């Protein structure tokens, strides 16, 4: 038996902005940051806030369980077919940076299964301050830290804090209890990041994830407004 | 067009940095560690030796045959027949698809495009590996070496992570097994010249059984 040659682009390599049928694919936003900083809580809150106006899906990268995916399912922030879990072999940063193949499969399968989608959120497994997403996987990334991890984290910098498209400093409600100086965190972050934005959030408060949702909407507007497919 | 065999292309394909998804798989090592069958470097060596002579030989045969240009549909069916565990079949197809993505980026080739189109859900990883080797200008022996090396390289890395095994000792295990890898690769490549029906069909029942159990664990570090 002989295979036909060269008529398909199925599974196009890397982060092509278009789907095999020529339409524009969903915007992909990565959320990374240290363990327990509030990545899943941010994803859940974003889903609740955006799901009525946007077509959304989520990929989680749990380190050794399916807890993040199961939390999102339990909270019913999205229908189950819009949530996929990727397994990372004890190495969360490898799956979002050095070998992104499993995550690319997951985002493409989601678009095939429940698309068209406007936005896919990819949550990294909790990692350290050097973990960043590959540009081959996401179009923009959010780095989530919290005030309880120490108010010197913005000063310490590292690729996540310094280069993420949005830095989120979460759990501001805890600042008085852990003695974190929010003003100092803001100044240090500005020093490390220059013009790049920083959002202070408390997912326990009324404003909650609002500033992050606002930023996501802006990114999406820019993505949709970008020039149409040429080829 | 004549294809020149290049040793360096083999290094690129066999490199652990080749982004084809292998890092999330332990080749059965996670289940063996949990069961207490791998506790140190000697256990790892025995485990790897067993893999080489069973699933390693089988994978190397399939990869060599694909590199020779044998019919991929027949090879994929042969791989299915040699993979009784549904969990391992799923893993092999998933890894095949992930490898395909990396291979097409590295060595754009109409045969790879056609194979990807024919198996949208992924062909078995060794079949894709052989096709990738072919696209890279490599031969059946090269593909078989690559498959044999992957058979033990994955578990060795996984055991370093799972047990905190001294990485020098893990690497020394691989180095000691190098002659066996050569031998397995040579046997596989020779068999591949005999056609699909002559391909090795060695298997390791315990790996199949523990793969099924592992797939049902609620908490695990590796996908297989
Ligand atoms: N007080 C307070 N707690 C929060 C806030 N955001 C999240 N949490 C809590 O912090 C804990 C960890 O939140 P997650 O969203 O699971 O954190 P994560 O970053 O996804 O964690 P990993 O995926 O394990 O790295 C949970 O108990 C949340 O309820 C916040 O703004 N304030
Ligand atoms: Mg989480």
Automatic annotation (TrEMBL), chain A:
Q: Which CDD domains match?
A: UreG
The cross-references to SUPFAM superfamilies, in alphabetical order and at most eight, read: P-loop containing nucleoside triphosphate hydrolases
Q: Respond yes or no to whether keyword Nucleotide-binding is given for this record.
A: yes
Q: Give the CobW/HypB/UreG nucleotide-binding domain ranges.
A: 29-198
Keywords per UniProt? Chaperone, Cytoplasm, GTP-binding, Nickel insertion, Nucleotide-binding
Q: From which domain of life does this come?
A: Bacteria
Q: What is this protein called?
A: Urease accessory protein UreG
The species this protein belongs to is Streptomyces filamentosus
Family annotation (HAMAP family): UreG
Similarity annotation: Belongs to the SIMIBI class G3E GTPase family. UreG subfamily.
Q: Which GO terms describe its molecular function?
A: GTP binding; GTPase activity; nickel cation binding
Region feature (Disordered): 1-20
Subcellular localization, as worded in the UniProt entry: Cytoplasm
Asked if the keyword Nucleus belongs to this entry, the reply reads no
Q: How does it assemble?
A: Homodimer. UreD, UreF and UreG form a complex that acts as a GTP-hydrolysis-dependent molecular chaperone, activating the urease apoprotein by helping to assemble the nickel containing metallocenter of UreC. The UreE protein probably delivers the nickel.
A single GO cellular-component term on record: cytoplasm
A GO BP term here is: urea catabolic process
Q: Gene3D superfamilies recorded for this chain? A: P-loop containing nucleotide triphosphate hydrolases
Name the gene: ureG
Give the source lineage, highest ranks first.
Bacteria, Bacillati, Actinomycetota, Actinomycetes, Kitasatosporales
Q: Where on this chain does GTP bind?
A: 33-40
From TrEMBL, chain B:
Cross-referenced InterPro entries: UreF, UreF_sf
Q: GO molecular-function annotation terms?
A: nickel cation binding
What are the UniProt keywords, alphabetically?
Chaperone, Cytoplasm, Nickel insertion
Q: Which Gene3D superfamilies match?
A: Urease accessory protein UreF
Subcellular location(s) of the protein: Cytoplasm
Q: What GO CC annotations are associated with the protein?
A: cytoplasm
Organism superkingdom: Bacteria
Q: What is its main location?
A: cytoplasm
Quaternary state and interactors:
UreD, UreF and UreG form a complex that acts as a GTP-hydrolysis-dependent molecular chaperone, activating the urease apoprotein by helping to assemble the nickel containing metallocenter of UreC. The UreE protein probably delivers the nickel.
Q: What does this protein do?
A: Required for maturation of urease via the functional incorporation of the urease nickel metallocenter.
Please report which protein family the annotation says this sequence is part of: Belongs to the UreF family.
User: What name has this protein been given in UniProt?
Assistant: Urease accessory protein UreF
Where is the organism placed in the taxonomic lineage, from the top? Bacteria, Bacillati, Actinomycetota, Actinomycetes, Kitasatosporales
Gene behind this protein: ureF
């Amino acid at each position: 038996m002989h295979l036909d040659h060269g008529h398909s682009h199925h599974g196009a390599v890397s982060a092509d902005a278009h789907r095999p049928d020529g339409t524009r694919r969903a915007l992909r936003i990565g959320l990374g940051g240290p363990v327990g900083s509030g990545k899943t809580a941010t994803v859940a809150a974003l889903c609740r806030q955006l799901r009525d106006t946007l077509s959304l899906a989520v990929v989680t990268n749990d380190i050794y369980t399916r807890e993040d995916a199961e939390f999102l399912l339990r909270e019913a922030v999205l229908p189950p077919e819009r949530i996929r879990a990727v397994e990372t072999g004890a190495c969360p940063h490898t799956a979002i940076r050095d070998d992104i193949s499993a995550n690319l499969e997951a985002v493409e399968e989601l678009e095939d299964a429940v698309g068209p989608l406007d936005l896919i959120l990819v949550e990294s497994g909790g990692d350290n301050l050097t973990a960043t997403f590959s540009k081959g996987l996401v179009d923009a990334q959010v780095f989530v830290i919290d005030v309880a991890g120490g108010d010197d984290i913005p000063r310490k910098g590292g690729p996540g804090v310094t280069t993420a498209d949005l830095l989120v400093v979460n759990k501001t409600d805890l600042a008085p209890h852990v003695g974190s100086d929010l003003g100092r965190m803001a100044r240090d972050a500005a020093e490390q990041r220059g013009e790049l934005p920083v959002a202070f959030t408390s997912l326990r408060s009324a404003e909650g994830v609002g500033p992050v949702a606002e930023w996501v909407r802006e990114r999406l507007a820019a993505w949709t407004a970008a020039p149409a497919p040429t080829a | 067009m004549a294809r020149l065999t290049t040793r360096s292309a083999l290094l690129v394909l066999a490199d652990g940095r080749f982004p084809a998804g292998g890092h999330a798989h332990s080749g059965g090592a996670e289940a063996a560690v949990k069961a207490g069958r791998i506790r140190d470097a000697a256990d790892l060596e025995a485990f790897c030796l067993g893999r080489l002579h069973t699933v390693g030989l089988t994978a190397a045969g399939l990869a060599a045959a694909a590199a020779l240009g044998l019919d991929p549909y027949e090879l994929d069916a042969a791989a299915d027949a040699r993979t009784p565990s549904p969990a391992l079949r799923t893993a092999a197809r998933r890894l095949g698809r992930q490898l395909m993505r990396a291979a097409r980026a590295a060595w754009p080739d109409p045969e790879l495009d056609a194979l990807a189109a024919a198996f949208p859900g992924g062909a078995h990883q060794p079949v894709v590996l052989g096709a990738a080797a072919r696209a890279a200008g490599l031969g059946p022996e090269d593909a078989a070496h690559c498959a044999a090396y992957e058979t033990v390289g994955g578990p060795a890395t996984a055991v370093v992570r799972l047990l905190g095994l001294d990485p020098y000792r893990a690497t020394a295990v691989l180095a000691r097994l190098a002659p066996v890898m050569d031998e397995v690769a040579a046997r596989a490549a020779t068999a591949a010249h005999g056609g699909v029906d002559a391909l090795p069909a060695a298997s390791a029942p315990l790996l199949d059984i523990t793969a099924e159990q592992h797939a049902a664990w609620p908490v695990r570090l590796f996908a297989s």
